[in-house]
Specification:
By secondary structure, this protein is of the alpha/beta class. The protein has a single domain, classed as Rossmann fold. Helices cover 37% and strands 20% of the residues. The strands form two sheets. The protein has a six-stranded mixed sheet with strand order 1-3-2-4-7-8, with helices on both faces. Strands 5-6 form a two-stranded antiparallel ribbon. Helix 1 runs parallel beside helix 6 and helix 2 packs across helix 3. The N terminus is likely disordered. InterPro entries: Flavodoxin_fold, Flavoprotein-like_sf, FMN-dep_NADH:Q_OxRdtase_AzoR1, NADH:quinone_OxRdtase_FMN_depd. It catalyses: N,N-dimethyl-1,4-phenylenediamine + anthranilate + 2 NAD(+) = 2-(4-dimethylaminophenyl)diazenylbenzoate + 2 NADH + 2 H(+); 2 a quinone + NADH + H(+) = 2 a 1,4-benzosemiquinone + NAD(+). It is an enzyme of class 1 (oxidoreductase).
Length: 227
């Protein structure tokens, strides 16, 4: 079973539904975050349209997301050389187990919703740490004689991203590294469907910030009905 970590919404009936991971990477709240505000409205509309589905919230700034470090690499090397899991140190066991839990949760989900701000042309580092946790050969992709093949076909993903400047198009599009990297990640893992709603330009046009936010909410709510 998918671990019910930080449950935000659950289906209103006992009928089995699809499992959705709502993955947020912002340290603030929806009162001050454009991405989280739009994300909450997306979820509200999604829940209305899909009452039997189950949405699980992973707040990356508050969840335990191990960063790949020397301790983890050392533990993996021990395991590959034949050391039993019980032979790892307590700290190594905790990190390796947590990474496995996150990867299993990701595999068992049917849909993913990523919500993040853009910081210096990319997303917050904790989202990269989370992505690292789900890149597992044999679980989310496999190596073949023809190259790596993603194992998450049939799943869907949605991205809500906020940035002070317009990065989805125009003169600064080539600077945008967050959505483009996430798109590459999901393609590599075999996810065939990836849509996005951008909340952007609020700093460049501060007098239109609320209008930009309202328009993004409207687009997100409409997209949620068909996700």
């Amino acid at each position: 079973m998918l671990n019910k970590l930080n449950t935000l919404f659950a289906g209103s009936s006992g009928t089995p539904g699809q499992k959705v991971l709502y993955i947020t990477a912002h340290p603030s709240t929806s009162e001050s975050s454009y991405s989280l505000a739009v994300g909450e409205q997306f979820l509200a509309a999604y829940n209305e349209a899909n009452p039997n589905d189950h949405v699980y919230h992973i707040d990356l700034f508050r969840a335990e997301i191990p960063y790949l470090d020397n301790e983890i690499f050392g533990a993996w090397n021990k395991l590959q050389s034949g050391t039993a899991f019980d032979g790892l140190t307590a700290a190594e066991q905790a990190k390796v187990a947590r990474l496995g839990e996150l990867a299993d949760q990701f595999v068992e989900a049917d849909k993913y919703v990523f919500v993040n701000p853009v910081w210096n042309f990319s997303y917050p580092p904790v989202l990269k740490a989370y992505i690292d946790s789900v890149f597992v050969a044999g679980k989310t992709f496999k190596y073949t004689t023809d190259g790596p093949v993603g194992l998450l076909g049939g799943k869907k993903a949605f991205h809500i991203q906020a940035s002070g400047s317009v990065l989805s198009e125009g003169g600064y599009a080539s600077f945008e590294m967050a959505h483009r990297h996430l798109d590459a990640v999901l393609k590599f893992l075999g996810v065939p469907s990836f849509e996005a709603v951008y909340v952007e330009g609020m700093a460049a046009q501060s007098d239109k910030a609320q209008e930009i936010k309202a328009n993004a909410i409207a687009r997100a709510r409409e997209a949620a009905k068909h996700f």
